[in-house]
Design a protein that fits this description.
five-stranded mixed sheet, 137 residues, alpha+beta, 31% helix, 2 domains
Amino acid sequence: MPLHLEIVTPEKKIFSDTVDNVYLPGADGEMGILPSHAGLVTALKPGELRYLHNGQVITLAIGSGFAEVSHDKTVVLTDMALGEAEIDEKATEEAINRAEEKLLTIEHSMDSEEVAYLQGIIAKQSAALRFKRKYQH
C-alpha cells in the first residue's frame, strides 16, 4: 500500500505524491512514518524532514507546524519548507543575529508574545542553518 505525502506551507503546496517513508521532526523527537501507520496528529518542531521518493532520499528544512497521519496519507502543514539550495547561509545568520539582539532588548519588558515570536524565528532559522551546513556541497 503506498503512502501519499503532502507538504504544504502558507505560500504553496511543496510536494504531493506517493513515497516509501517519511521522517519528521516531531515535538518529542524524530518519528518515522511508513504505509499503514496508525492515525495521529502531532506538532512539528523546526528541523529536517526526509522522505524516500522513487529511490531517492529528499531532505527539507522545515519550520514548526503539524502533521496529520492516516494509514495511507501524511499531510505536513508547516510555516517553512526549504531545500539546501534555497537557504542563504549569510542571510539566515543575519536573521538569527537580528532576532537575538531584539530579544535581548525586549526581554525585560516581559512582552511574552514578542519573546515567543522571536524565539520561534531563532529556532526556525537555526534549524535551516544546521540543515544548510549539513548538506551543502
